[in-house]
Amino acid sequence: MIDWPIISVTIFLPLLGSLIIFLIKEDESSSNNIKWAALWTSIGTFILSCLIWLQFDNAFVGYQLIEKYQWFSDFNFFYHVGVDGISLFMILLSTFLIPFCILASWVSIKKRIKEYMMAFLFLETVMLGMFFSIDILLFYIFFESVLIPMFLIIGIWGGENRIYASFKFFLYTLLGSVLMLIAIIFMYQITNTMNISELQGNFFSKKVQLYLWLAFFASFAVKIPMWPFHTWLPDAHVEAPTAGSVILAGVLLKMGGYGFIRFSLGMFPEASAYFMPLIMTLSVIAIIYTSFVAFAQTDMKKLIAYSSVAHMGMVTIGIFLVNPQGLEGAIVQMISHGIVSAALFLCVGVIYDRMHTREIAFYGGLVTRMPKYSVAFMIFMLASVGLPGTSGFVGEFLIILGAFKFNTFIALFAASGIILGAIYMLYLYKNIIFGVLTNDKLKEILDLETREKLIMYPIIIMVIIIGVFPNIFLDSMHLSVELIISNYEIANGK
Amino acid sequence: MENSFINIVLFPEIALSIATVILLLIGLFQKKNSFKNICNLSILTLIFISFLVFLNRDFALANYNDFFTNSAFIQFFKGLIIIGSLATIIIAKNYFIELKLSRFEIPILILFSILGMMVLISSNDLISMYLGIELQSLALYVVAAIKRDSLQSSESGVKYFVLGALSSGILLYGCSLIYGFTGSTNFQDIQNNLNILNHLNLGIMFGLIFVLVGLAFKVSAVPFHMWTPDVYEGAPTSITAFFAIVPKVAAVALIFRFCLEPFKDFYSEWSQIIIFLSIASMFLGAIAAIAQKSIKRLLAYSSIGHVGYILIGLVAANSAGIKGVSIYMSIYVVMNIAVFSIILSLKYNNVFIEKIREFSGLSKHKPLISLSLSIIMLSMAGIPPFAGFFGKFYIFVAALKADLILLAVLGVISSVISAFYYLRIIKVMYFDEQENANFQLIINSQSLFLLIFCMLFISLFVFYPSFLTSISSYISIDYFQ
What we know:
The structure holds two protein chains of two kinds.
Chain A: H1 6-23, H2 31-55, E1 64-70, E2 78-83, H3 87-104, H4 113-132, H5 136-145, H6 147-157, H7 162-191, H8 196-199, H9 206-223, H10 232-239, H11 242-267, H12 269-295, H13 300-321, H14 324-355, H15 366-369, H16 371-385, H17 391-406, H18 408-433, H19 450-468, H20 471-491
Chain B: H1 5-9, H2 12-29, H3 34-55, H4 72-98, H5 105-122, H6 126-144, H7 151-182, H8 187-195, H9 202-219, H10 227-234, H11 237-260, H12 267-288, H13 295-316, H14 319-343, E1 346-348, E2 351-352, H15 362-365, H16 367-381, H17 387-401, H18 405-430, E3 439-441, H19 445-460, H20 466-479
Antiparallel strand pairs in B: 1-2, 1-3
């Protein structure tokens, strides 16, 4: 066993890194130091989170490696962190992606490198803190703090229309989450505790649950995002720098799914059952509608952004099926989408760095000039549409399996989402990679350089590991998922 | 404790008035550097007075026929006032000298208005309350118009005076009605006399409303806020800083005491008014600030919005409300000290910054200052993990304890609207590019120290909130004993 506070160290190591970067004076010669400091901090954090995974006991129900300190003198709020089967992989996902974000920004970010790296490391701290929190108020503080660095990343280093996108992102998600604050305080008045694991169950009367559920829904539905609350996402994705899009698609959207599992299902089971038809309807609309919208896009990033909404529709279906296959499928799908969509954005970033355009029509025939890139892109594209053997297959297969148990129609719609996904992804791939290279500007384009290979290859390996050995991941989440499902079934008298 | 001479002299209000008069004399007879010396001396005086305030907990003497009272709540707010004015004098000193406004009367007038505020906070009688209000207001009218050769400053002074006099008149009329129908001016007696009534009769009702109107004017709650943006904009920025920080604290403490002491049995009567004032202030503060071009006007509307949140704590009327308001006010004071210490020391093309767009590109030239200003703005918007969030949090806790769910929901919605204009300042500093900007930072070591302290408070509050929450718990328990 580890007898030092490994979780707190993991949470605050990036913050420490950003403080160190803060102290470095920025000039021509030190900008490399800043990048290296940020990279090593994030790699260190990843190693620490792997240590947490090694320490994790699959046979233990509930939170592990708990740290708890008094925080407020007058309330039962604690600095209370720990990890369980649901949060573990969200944490690994976050720490896994951040080094790639920093690598991806190595040359493409040219101004204010110091602030950029500080923002990313601060973002990592608050994301990790959010997933590790056992105290709801602590969770809320981290949940909202995420907005600050993301606002700056979009607003300072974004594209043409960055100011509009950053304000929309900030205000939209803030409006969603402030209602959650009221709900949190309200829950505290009733139960006098803020401990997430103590609140797992059915502690509120059904009427109260409905209101609380709606308040939390407002927050998570915007975050994940569900149709029709998704409109901030394409703007934010298109304007954000590559690494910003990666973290937005990779981790920030998962905060919504994580919240749904932890709060909506875990604390308001009766309300979740009551609102399930709503979720299913919105998810099905999201899958079908945004797939068509994605097909109509001319901007690569926008296409992938809309595909994210569709994939998240699959996730919400999986979550609210509330059976083991659906829920585990949803978690795996979140991890897989986190990695795959992040990788797709990185792929877009590779050619954007070279050509400075994301128009699909501009490209074509890249396979002749960039064979390695084409292979990497193909693997991610196929993972995104759920080819067996890749990570995307496991999640989607489990969700559809769970959906068949529940309702054939839902399963049918969910499955049609996969087909639609294949259509627009293959269309994207065909238009960029295949065909004849007609555009003169593309004649000189170069294949992946070492730094980009370092980004792509580990992600490819991850995608295949998840696809071939999903049990490494599923084993750790079984008990936590069962706990939530049994709570739900008891509460609803099944 | 006996009423010996030394004890009477050490009574904070008396000591302050004696010290102020002595300072006035010193200022009169000093030829050179009178402004700087008087400023330093008044800082020392205030430090001394703050010790007295915290030491005289058990002074039963000199209550002057129950004219005054004392409690932890009162002491806390007196302390806040003194800290706020200390800080304002420190951060404003340079500004006055740069603007060639270094008249020694300014610190003296500020000291007199502080005296008035201390009197009105601890008043236990309609008459002492009115005396305190007038003493602070008269001093403030003069300082608002201190820049005599500026049209704007004189206009703001006159505007403040006319509207202030009107509101004082209404307040006084209300006091007379209350006296007429209850037969007493003492808060305790009024409460006892009202206690036997089942409902308020029309006369007392009007009295209550008139007094609340007068007080709403002092805290600048909508719809009695009209003077605030104009006075904030017209007065020299250093005076604006004082207006934003100090008198608000006093007026908030008074409106709390007035509602919760003499009229505590008639909650439903005054709470209707306060609920309206609160909602109107939050939303007008949030929406009207969006279109502002001047940073001072923006801060005026932002302070109107803050008053709206504070009044939620009053409507809650429970110990959590008292706790919430003491935490909120402390954080509010710190945030305003920080923001004004930046505005008062930042020059753009050799003129002190007044327009929001003049901040554009600040992050390139003064990265630390713009980082601080962004943290303050996020804190004012109530975004965690900064201190401002906890102020709002405690207010909402109080509201939900009193089952005011709708008010809390409106509060958070207006806070999202107000986030827009706070973010706009960050946007101007960070997202807008400006290559040839010429920023100058004129800051002396004292105000730099103050700024660093405030920034540490705002950003590190999340790690150790207990020091403030335990004080405020003590205050709220003491208040409802």
